[in-house]
C-alpha cells in the first residue's frame, strides 16, 4: 500500500511531471463558488462550465465523478461527495433547507468517488493531487477521510499528494 505524501502548497498547481489529476469534492446541488473551486476557476474555466452542465443531467448524483481535461496530461476530477451546502439557515439541498441536519459531507459518496478515481488514474497512468477533500466547506473529519483515500488510491499504489495551503 502506498502512503500519502503531504506538502505545503496549492493543489491547483500540482507538483511533478507526467499525467496528473487534481481531485476535489463538490456538492450535489450544482453550486460552485466557494473553497478550492475559486482557485480552480481562476486557472481554468472548463471545470466550472462542465460541472454546471453536468449538474442538470441524470448521471449527476452523490458518488459520481466527472473528469475534465484542463491541459495536456492534467485533469480536474469533480467528485460529488457533499449533500447540499451549509448556509445560515441550515443545510441547503435541492429541495429546501434542513436546519440542524449536520455537515454536508457524505463519507460513503467520497469512498465511491475515490473508487472511480482509481479507474481514471490507472487508465491515464496518473498521480492524484488534492486538498484535504471533504474537510473544508463540507465539514468532514480528516481522521475519517484519510483512511478512505488509503483504502482506495493507496491500495492501488496510486501516487497521491495532499496539499495544505501555507500559513
SSE blueprint and pairings:
Elements: E1 5-8, E2 20-27, H1 36-43, H2 46-54, E3 65-71, E4 74-82, E5 85-87, E6 90-93, E7 96-98, H3 107-124, E8 127-130, H4 142-152, E9 160-164
Parallel strand pairs: 1-9, 2-4, 2-8, 8-9
Antiparallel strand pairs: 3-4, 5-6, 6-7
Helix pairs in contact: 3-4
Gist?
The chain is an alpha/beta fold and 167 residues long.
Question: Can you tell me about this structure?
Answer:
- It catalyses: an N-(ADP-alpha-D-ribosyl)-thymidine in DNA + H2O = a thymidine in DNA + ADP-D-ribose.
- InterPro entries: ADP-ribose_metab_enzymes, Macro_dom, Macro_dom-like.
- This is Appr-1-p processing protein.
- With 167 residues, the chain is of the alpha/beta class.
- The chain has a single domain, classed as Leucine Aminopeptidase, subunit E, domain 1 (3-Layer(aba) Sandwich), CATH 3.40.220.
- Helices cover 28% and strands 28% of the residues.
- The protein has 4 helices and 9 strands.
- It has helices spanning 36-43, 46-54, 107-124, 142-152; strands at 5-8, 20-27, 65-71, 74-82, 85-87, 90-93, 96-98, 127-130, 160-164.
- The protein has a 6-stranded mixed sheet with strand order 1-9-8-2-4-3, with helices on both faces. It has a 3-stranded antiparallel sheet with strand order 5-6-7, with no helix packed on it.
- A hairpin with a 2-residue loop joins β6 and β7.
- α3 (107-124) runs parallel beside α4 (142-152).
- The N and C termini lie far apart (30 Å).
Structural key phrases:
six-stranded mixed β-sheet, 4 helices, globular, 167 residues, alpha/beta, Leucine Aminopeptidase, subunit E, domain 1
